[in-house]
């Protein structure tokens, strides 16, 4: 089920992310297409980072970040690379955390660093490129934070200059898969002799920086907070024709559109924080104290409350989804709320993850081969509102556990990991799996599984080891000889003997090395 269909049918389950021990505040800040979440929790006056696995429900403490609101983990890509901002003796630092949870400071090696100012990392794409801000010596006497992009190797690309006034601050807050950046810049919208500085939203790429339009005047302020795969941008923008009020906004093909709040019109504090490739934007309608997390579906200006998408479930008193902070192309939504877990009566803010009730498959079975009478293991990974159910198929027909008519044994046909032992030609075919969720079903792509008879050693390749084994069978010759292994595995043409004709077939596989 797509997010676009959720206006009519509930399509999500709201899962509370456990708070770290001692935390009185927590929020989920980013999510990837596999349902992996990062966020931060406030413990004893200091923010600590965490990572949450949407599939297993496991949470990991990623250590101390710092006491200020600027400190947090802000991005995670599908490879599990995490970026954020942490405090140090010399100011804020941009940090990178590996999938093995090793933290590195990318500030010193990637920027012209000025003590006591620092840097921050705000987002990371699948290529490992990072958007953020870094301190630069922009004059003989001054420094400033300028929007920045880092490559995976850590080399600084180009600072994003805001205005024609030295040291005008800029910030890059988001990056998409095309390496397009989005953020804000202090721009001169007047002239050199009569300057008029304004905070303006922008997008940028290798060809330069492009200011985004506001509603009615070049002096209106605005900030681009998220950018989708296709270049759609969301954020906030001021409207002078509406008394200078700040509205959530969506930029499509460079044109600005005003997003409504719940109930229509304007609510103070409304904001659009993230947008995905399907132009589904998420954020908040209203302020932090009384507002609700919402989604603007497929560019529609009318918001839908996230509580309207969630499946019925018990919650604590005071249940409220406060704000949605991020949405991935996979449809996962994260944010912060209260009373999500029915056992939590503390009233403290906590992170949440909305799991699609139709499972999202994050890893599909892959094509492979088996030696004759070998063991094949296929696996799939999926995240969704559960419990999830599994049914493996061969050529579209459900598999059943147990011994098959030709001697093969199937195990775990209704789990995420299928095992077939004694694999034979009768087992060849396209294998797939159907995965059921709380209100829908997904089917994986098929994987062709074949027998590689020349792989006599069952190691997945045809090498000199297999040649030595073939020679042994060649010397025995007759498949009926008691010395020949069961099934006469080297009789490739099935004529009852292992002879020169089989040797020719073996050499073809030997030259190819791999079985497929």
Write a structural description.
This protein has 516 residues and is mainly β. Among the domains are: 362-451, Immunoglobulins (Immunoglobulin-like), CATH 2.60.40.10; 464-512, no CATH class. It is 6% helix and 43% strand. The protein contains three helices and 39 strands. The strands form ten sheets. Strands 29, 32, 33, 37, 38 and 39 form a six-stranded mixed β-sheet that branches. A four-stranded antiparallel β-sheet has the order 1-27-26-25, with no helix packed on it. It has a four-stranded antiparallel β-sheet with strand order 2-3-4-5, with no helix packed on it. Strand 3 and strand 4 (46-53) form a beta hairpin. Helix 2 (464-476) packs antiparallel against helix 3 (500-512). It is elongated and about 100 Å long.
Task: Provide keyphrases for this structure.
39 strands, Immunoglobulin-like, disordered N terminus, six-stranded mixed beta sheet, four-stranded antiparallel beta sheet, mainly beta, 516 residues
Shape: elongated
Distance N terminus to C terminus?
35 Å
CATH architecture of the domain at 362-451: Sandwich
In terms of DSSP E residues, the strand content is 35-45%
Helix content: under 10%
Assign the CATH topology of the domain at 362-451. Answer: Immunoglobulin-like
> Can you count the helices?
3
The level-1 CATH class of the domain at 362-451: Mainly Beta
Fourth-tier CATH superfamily name of the domain at 362-451? Immunoglobulins
Number of strands: 39
Spatial extent as radius of gyration: 29 Å
